[in-house]
Amino acid sequence: MDAPVVRGRSVGDPPPPPATGARRLLAEPEAVDAVGEALAALHGTDGAPGTVPVVLAATDYCVRAADAFAAHCDDSARRLRPSDSVALEASGLLQRFTALTGWQGPGYVIAEPDGDGAAALRFARGLVESGRAPSVYLCEVLRRADTGAFWAVATRVRQEPADPPGRRSTDAGDHPPAPAGPAHGLDPVTSRRSAVLRASIRPSSPDPAEEQLP
Questions:
Q1: Strand 150-158 vs strand 135-143: parallel, antiparallel, or unpaired?
Q2: Helix (H, G, I), strand (E, B) or coil at 107
Q3: Rounded to a whole number, what is the largest CA-CA distance in the chain?
Q4: In terms of Cα–Cα distance, which of 169, 175, 176, 178 is closest to 207?
Q5: d(CA 197, CA 117)
Q6: What is the pTM of this model?
Q7: In DSSP terms, which residues pair with 50 in a beta bridge?
């Protein structure tokens, strides 16, 4: 797994500019920008970057979009707009990345009850280990609880020839959360929710499920 790329708006940063044009059709353009910039930083490091699969861990975005849609439905003084329903489609998070790089897919969106990227990380590894893709872009979409700002944590998952069979880095499922690194700028609380950041700090940890085998 490559070193993570982290993009987002920190406390004290100016708010994003108002959405205009096509961006108005997207709920949370800030999330779209963070995802696009993080993935674009990885793009071009593979032999055929335009076809590298992207896996999005988008629980935070899906919850926010669903809550906003429900609030608009309950608001008798406001008419529903096309953008309200379009925002529910998490694949829109890849729109800026596609525009910046010409990426053509495929893409997968995973949302899980705990809001953690562990399932998306396992899925990305499964695509690589099964031989379906030589590498996969994995991007977690995380929303800060204190500011509501969206952040993106992205990495490239690829087969590591030096890994012993049956051993791989993990999302640290039964390990204490890893502290936030000062380099990426993400706050500690949100950082601890990132499976990608936890796995990058423990590159040699075994899969907890494999540890339970006799």
A1: antiparallel
A2: strand
A3: 61
A4: 169
A5: 10
A6: 0.77
A7: none
Residue 67 and residue 63: Cα distance in Å, rounded? Answer: 6
Tell me the CA distances in angstroms from 129 to 1, 35, 93, 204, 212, one per residue in order: 12, 25, 26, 17, 21
- The answer to whether 135 touches 40, Cβ cutoff 8 Å, is no
Q: Which residues of the chain have pLDDT under 70?
A: 10-27, 44-49, 72, 82-86, 115, 161-183, 202-214
The pair of structure tokens assigned to 178 is 């890893």
> Angle at CA 183, nearest 5°, toward 179 and 188?
30
Peptide bond into 106 cis (omega under 30): yes
Q: What is the pLDDT of residue 15?
A: 64
Contact 153, 142 (CB under 8 A): yes
Q: What is the DSSP letter of 25?
A: G
H/E element, 188: helix 188-192
Sign of the torsion angle spanned by Cα atoms 27, 33, 36, 39: negative
pLDDT digit string, tens, across residues 6-18? 998 765 566 666 6
Q: Are strands 54-57 and 107-110 parallel, antiparallel or unpaired?
A: parallel
Contacts by 25-29, CB closer than 8 A, 24 or more apart: 25/82, 25/83, 25/86, 25/92, 26/83, 26/86, 26/87, 26/92, 26/95, 27/64, 27/65, 27/68, 27/83, 27/84, 27/86, 27/87, 27/88, 27/92, 28/61, 28/64, 28/65, 28/87, 28/150
